[in-house]
Write a sequence for this structure.
């Protein structure tokens, strides 16, 4: 390689490179004069230039015209899907060299760090819709690698609704608000969507996932991500292998409950966005490991499904995950529009070592993303927008177009050329030129679907069979909500009939909940080779950590300040935090002296915004709480949502005064520590450390579904 070429191709990328690259574009207003866009200092910005104090505004007021014109043009089209989202910067660290499988530069050495930008999103809602709606979540990652940008544009669900991209506009038109009245917002619970589902049995598997707890994640930091489509790894020798990508959150996979999700949508529509940014600000950097399932080409046809069918998973029990690195999100964007709104992902953005397969959903995606950016970002130069610019240098003969920033030097804009010395010139594979995988393809031009794509139910059944009882119950309730909102009884019937193919019992339960006829039991059309895949159940993915969980402490004047203090200290040691919630904001008097600062009043928060609740002792405080409807409701609601609840000393009496039932409380015979299905109480506290450990375990468990069976408490 010539010295000149080496210089042209070699860049050093580290985890901070992209943030440094963006610095060139940051604007700092501190200590600056207000100017026009032309850099002219403005002397007056509150009054337009007029002909006389009461006269008309003059056209020559260039500052007024510029200010208004820019404002009038501030909006750009929102994304057709995934409009509502949030993003963060971070880096990816490779654990071990993957050179045997891929030449992707960011996977070549252990310890190699590559900067990334990640955007999380809901799919259906408009840009201003609520975060906690039932939906799939987008998980899109842009790796700024030495060899160019690589985009892994995934979701938190490993399969998709449809098998062929030509159906995407139909799918999206059916799930978006109905065209006559633009209702409902950010919801699939309406006739057109379920009409679409009933006509497309290939939806069955994805619907099972969306209606499971996966459709209402607790946090973007507590959900998995999946590349969904099957991709290809290609190594230096040109050998290809199929690959499936998985992101696995270090905090485990956790969800909300549906009643809670709906309430949060009103109390804090920015819940997931806030959660992500607060966690980053507090130093709880979200972490996800990257797992891959690698499949030899010779094994392509060894499965009981087609690897090219995006409605299928490759069960981890059949092809285990290999964990190859970790993503850490370390900083918020500086400007939401410039970074999160303008970032443009595209599954066709690949780097040498990563290639496509003939998955017909993926093939269509390769076209659609670039196409949509042309209208959304207003022209072909959106790759020059700072957040989209690769760190790898780019040189080509593409020219001009709206908002061109690059000043291309030289006379030639064509290839081959002699006037420009032949540059820029194509690179060989050794020089990191992208060489498409040489796959043999033959066939007739035909609009058809392979028979291997026609098994619609076996993996939906596998998913259903892999759920725990509470998870199954949540799915059935979600069907009752979604399909129960469908006005057409005929569509409801078609859905019950369709899902009887997944499991006759499921079909029966759906039918009974939405007042249609119980479908006749049918023999399964095709069975999956596995009866169960334990990897599919969230219940099997609960790590023992309470990092970044939020606890509410209910208190009033006369609270046992020492219990509050001890809890705060111990939570902090475990990376969790708490907020004191009371009738009004201000300072509370402690029972034995001392003061407790109130963080939130019942007006400014709610139990749905916390992971757990603690009621400290203090006779006067607890008597006051018992008479406050908001405090009792707080406990009832947290109990109904199966959250951990703890109380010490007199605090236990608030629990007794609430509507919670079916759990054993301290003081009923036993005055010491009692821990029963997530309710941890100690009427006589004794060892606070021991009490805390029981509470900590209950929080790590996240939700205590075994309480759900009990008759619902009013909340
Ligand atoms: Fe898509 C956005 C994920 C199928 C067409 N998609 C978009 C985003 C994510 C996904 C995460 C948001 C990116 C961002 O944050 O800016 N999409 C998926 C997954 C799919 C999928 C995991 C199934 C494997 N998508 C899919 C198909 C088509 C599209 C089949 C069209 C043929 N997707 C788009 C789009 C969007 C988009 C219209 C809207 C905004 C954008 O691209 O930039 O082009």
């Amino acid at each position: 390689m010539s010295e000149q070429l080496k210089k042209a191709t070699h860049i050093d990328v580290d985890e901070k490179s992209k943030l440094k690259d963006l610095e060139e574009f940051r604007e700092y207003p501190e200590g600056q004069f207000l100017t026009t866009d032309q850099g002219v200092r403005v002397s007056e910005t509150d009054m337009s230039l007029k002909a006389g104090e009461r006269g008309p505004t003059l056209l020559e007021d260039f500052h007024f015209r510029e200010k208004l014109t820019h404002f009038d043009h501030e909006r750009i089209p929102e994304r057709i899907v995934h409009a509502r989202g949030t993003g963060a910067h971070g880096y990816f660290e490779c654990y071990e060299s993957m050179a045997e499988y891929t030449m992707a530069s960011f996977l070549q050495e252990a310890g190699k760090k590559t900067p990334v930008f990640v955007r999380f999103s809901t799919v259906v809602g408009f840009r201003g819709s609520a975060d906690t709606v039932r939906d799939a979540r987008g998980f899109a990652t842009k790796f700024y690698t030495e060899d160019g940008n690589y985009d892994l544009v995934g979701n938190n669900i490993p399969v998709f609704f449809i098998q062929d991209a030509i159906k995407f506009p139909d799918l999206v038109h059916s799930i978006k608000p109905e065209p006559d009245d633009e209702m409902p917002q950010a919801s699939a619970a309406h006739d057109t969507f379920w009409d679409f589902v009933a006509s497309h049995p290939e939806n069955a598997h994805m619907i099972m996932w969306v209606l499971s707890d996966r459709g209402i994640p607790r946090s973007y930091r507590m959900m998995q991500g999946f590349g969904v489509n099957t991709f290809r790894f290609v190594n230096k020798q040109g050998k290809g292998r199929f690959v499936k990508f998985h992101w696995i959150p270090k905090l485990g996979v956790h969800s909300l409950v549906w009643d809670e999700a709906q309430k949060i949508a009103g109390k804090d529509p920015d819940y997931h966005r806030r959660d992500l940014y607060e966690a980053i600000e507090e130093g709880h950097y979200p972490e996800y490991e990257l797992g891959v399932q690698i499949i030899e080409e010779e094994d392509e046809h060894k499965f009981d499904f087609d690897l090219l069918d995006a409605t299928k998973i490759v069960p981890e029990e059949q092809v285990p995950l290999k964990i190859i690195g970790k993503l850490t999100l370390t900083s918020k964007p500086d400007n939401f529009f410039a970074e999160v709104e303008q970032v443009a992902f595209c599954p066709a953005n690949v780097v040498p070592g990563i290639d496509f397969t003939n998955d017909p959903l993926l093939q269509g995606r390769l076209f659609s993303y670039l196409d949509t950016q042309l209208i959304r970002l207003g022209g072909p130069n959106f790759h020059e927008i700072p957040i989209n610019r690769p760190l790898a240098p780019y040189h080509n003969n593409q020219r001009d177009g709206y908002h061109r920033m690059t000043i291309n030097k030289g006379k030639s804009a064509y290839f081959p050329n002699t006037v420009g010395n032949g540059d820029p010139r194509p690179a060989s594979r050794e020089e990191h030129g992208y060489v498409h995988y040489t796959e043999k393809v033959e066939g007739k031009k035909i609009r058809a679907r392979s028979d291997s794509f026609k098994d619609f139910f076996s993996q939906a059944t596998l998913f259903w069979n892999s759920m725990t009882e509470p998870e199954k119950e949540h799915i059935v309730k979600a069907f009752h909500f979604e399909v129960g909102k469908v006005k057409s009884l005929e569509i409801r019937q078609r859905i019950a009939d369709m899902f009887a193919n997944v499991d006759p019992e499921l079909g029966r339960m759906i039918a009974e909940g939405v007042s249609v006829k119980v479908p006749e039991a049918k023999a399964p059309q095709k069975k999956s080779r596995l009866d169960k895949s334990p990897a599919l159940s969230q219940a099997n993915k609960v790590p023992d950590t309470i990092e970044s969980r939020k606890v509410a402490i209910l208190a009033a004047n006369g609270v046992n300040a020492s219990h509050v203090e001890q809890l705060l200290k111990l939570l902090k040691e475990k990376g969790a935090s708490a907020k004191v919630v009371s009738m009004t904001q201000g300072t509370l008097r402690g029972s034995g002296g001392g003061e407790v600062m109130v963080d939130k009043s019942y007006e400014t928060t709610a139990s749905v915004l916390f992971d757990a609740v603690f009621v400290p002792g203090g006779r006067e405080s607890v008597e006051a709480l018992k008479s406050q409807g908001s405090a009792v409701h707080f406990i009832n609601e947290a109990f109904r949502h199966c959250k951990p609840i703890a109380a010490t000393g007199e605090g236990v009496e608030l629990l007794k005064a609430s509507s919670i039932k079916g759990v054993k409380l301290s003081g009923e015979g036993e005055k010491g520590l009692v821990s029963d299905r997530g309710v941890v109480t100690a009427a006589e506290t004794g060892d606070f450390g021991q009490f805390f450990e029981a509470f900590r375990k209950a929080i790590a468990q996240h939700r205590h579904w075994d309480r759900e069976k009990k008759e619902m408490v009013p909340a």
User: Anything to note?
Assistant: The chain has a mean pLDDT of 96.
